[in-house]
Amino acid sequence: MENVHRFPRLEQSMSQRFLSTTTNRSARGLHIRLRIAQHDGCFIRIPSDHASPEDQKKVSFITSEGTFCYVAMPFGLKNAGATYQRLVDKIFHPQIGRNVEVYVNDMLVKSKKAADHVKDLEETFSILRKYKLKLNPAKCAFGVQGGRFLGFMVTQRGIEANPLKIRAIIDMKAPTCLNEAQRLTGRIAALSRFISKSAEKSLPFFKTLRKAKTVPPANLLLKN
């Protein structure tokens, strides 16, 4: 059965949250990015489909030592992401939107004032210890004032475009075939919320993709 638990639409909601939470004129806010660790490709402590033996058999795997079943939710299953999101939504509910943002196993602890940062971290670590969740130190960043989170740049000013995505477009060659034009429009779409009148500016490319199987020279696209 499909797990229909919703994922947070962070690309829409985070901007206002960060603008109202991290911006402070008298003191610079701080962030910490955390990554909850996994063990052998499984989400720690999440039973596979509530440890139902019938369901565990459906995702069994064969090794040279015999056939085995997962006892924890593995990556690759349809419900894996929703199952984990349900968990973190439940255990971090008192903090989400206030001093924590969490998407599956990616977390961001945010503080309005530098003086509050240690207290916010203590609250977060207390919950992690309570539910026996561990962090991956190699993917954690402490006491930073900005950084990448879920493909966006998070700063005191709010959510900004990721420079790497901008550079990917700048470094692209002019499209000469359909696949290259599709790749370009996909990269532009990823930054559309940061581009004024992005739909209008991208219209020539989308018209070409709808009408033709081959792409005319880039200068003709830009001229149109």
From TrEMBL:
CDD domains: RT_LTR
Name of the protein described by the UniProt record: Reverse transcriptase domain-containing protein
Domain Reverse transcriptase residues, every copy: 55-153
Domain of life according to the entry: Eukaryota
